[in-house]
């Protein structure tokens, strides 16, 4: 049974689809059949749109590195789409690499230390403040110099960073870096927006607001510097928050299956469906904020249906870098 303490409080000021409380989202997620299993290939329309944006961003930059940001909620298909784009561009002679924000998570030991010294919720990976931003900036800087670079990788089953010997390597003279993640491009919220908790997790475990203010400060500081390296930004927009909950649970079921097939992969990062509900509550505030704020700033918006097929694509005019 799901612990009711971690279900969202009703939101007072919005009835928009993306403002559905997590309590309702969970009920909706379990009301019908699971969303279809994610295809190993992305929707062709999404790939074509992202490819067009990448080509536009590369234009006129000659041998300089271009960073393409890909922002999308958990389970939206970012990794699948990024891998397909890399394959297409590599075939076209454009050396391409992928860096996931998830792979920049602080080590488990570092997050446990944050949890002990700043706020207990910072021990859980995910929100701004739990990534090694300096590592991300250093990786991009190395690629800008034309150097081959190790790409950090994070093992979610073990909830810890992989050893450098397990890292991937980006080729020398990489032309395009696809930088994908769930909160790419997120901006800090106002003090007024931080005043009220968005769910029971915040209401009961962050009563003084220390956690959400720490996360917000990270967005205003180190993460803003990381987002500033992005030359073009695409958004995979989920239809609503309820869908995101279902997608995330589906991801975890796949991970549990992998662990079942290979018990040596088991670790503290593998979650049950009930644990996913609490986990998603950590992401809820920024996810809702992104659904409302990012579409007005992205260069390309790819709207997704619950089964992840594309329902609409909007490409902004070529007006330069999207980040502020």
Tell me what the structure shows.
- With 324 residues, the protein is of the alpha/beta class.
- It is built from eleven helices and ten strands.
- Strand 9 and strand 10 form a beta hairpin.
- The longest helix has 21 residues.
- The protein starts with 21 loop residues before the first helix and ends in a 9-residue tail after the last strand.
- The N terminus and C terminus are likely disordered.
Features:
324 residues; alpha/beta; Rossmann fold; six-stranded mixed β-sheet; 11 helices; 10 strands; 40% helix; disordered N terminus
Q: What is the helix tally?
A: 11
Number of domains: 1
Mean pLDDT: 85
Principal-axis shape? globular
The largest sheet has its strands arranged as 2-7-1-8-9-10
What structural class do helix, strand and pairing data support?
A: alpha/beta
Helix and strand run: HHEHEHHEEEEEHHHHEHHEE
What percent of the residues sit in helical stretches (DSSP H or I)? Answer: 40-55%
CATH level-1 class:
Alpha Beta
In percent terms, what proportion of residues is strand? Answer: 5-15%
> CATH superfamily, please?
P-loop containing nucleotide triphosphate hydrolases
**Distance between the amino and carboxyl termini:** 43 Å
Largest sheet: 6 strands, mixed
Corresponding CATH architecture: 3-Layer(aba) Sandwich
Radius of gyration over all CA atoms, rounded: 19 Å
CATH topology-level fold name: Rossmann fold
Which stretches are poorly predicted, pLDDT < 50 over at least 5 residues? 1-33, 261-266, 319-324
């Amino acid at each position: 049974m799901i612990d009711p303490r971690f279900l969202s409080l009703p939101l007072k000021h919005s009835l928009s689809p993306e403002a559905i409380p997590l309590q309702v989202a969970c009920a909706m997620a379990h009301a019908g059949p699971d969303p279809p299993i994610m295809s190993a290939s992305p929707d062709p329309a999404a790939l074509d749109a992202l490819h067009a944006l990448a080509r536009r961003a590369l234009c006129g930059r000659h041998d300089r590195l271009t960073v393409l940001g890909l922002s999308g909620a958990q389970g939206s298909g970012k990794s699948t789409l990024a891998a397909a784009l890399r394959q297409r561009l590599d075939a076209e002679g454009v050396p391409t690499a992928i860096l996931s924000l998830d792979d920049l998570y602080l080590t488990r030991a570092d997050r446990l230390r944050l949890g002990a010294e700043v706020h207990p919720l910072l021990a859980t990976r995910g929100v701004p403040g739990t990534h090694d931003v300096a590592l991300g900036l250093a990786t991009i800087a190395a690629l800008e110099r034309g150097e081959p670079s190790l790409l950090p990788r994070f093992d979610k089953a073990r909830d810890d960073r992989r050893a450098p010997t397990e890292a991937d390597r980006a080729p020398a003279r990489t032309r395009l870096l696809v930088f994908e993640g769930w909160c790419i491009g997120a901006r800090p919220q106002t003090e007024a927006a931080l005043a009220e908790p968005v769910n029971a997790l915040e209401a009961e475990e962050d009563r003084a607001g220390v956690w959400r203010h720490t996360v917000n400060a990270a967005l205003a500081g180190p993460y803003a510097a990381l987002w500033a390296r992005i030359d073009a930004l695409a958004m995979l927009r989920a239809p609503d928050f309820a869908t995101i909950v279902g997608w995330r649970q589906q991801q975890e079921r796949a991970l549990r299956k992998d662990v079942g097939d290979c018990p040596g992969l088991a670790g503290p990062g593998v979650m049950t469906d009930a644990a996913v509900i609490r986990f998603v509550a950590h992401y809820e505030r920024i996810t809702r904020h992104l659904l409302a704020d990012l579409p007005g700033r992205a260069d390309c918006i790819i709207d997704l249906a619950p089964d992840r097929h594309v329902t609409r694509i909007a490409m902004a005019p070529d007006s330069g870098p999207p980040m502020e």
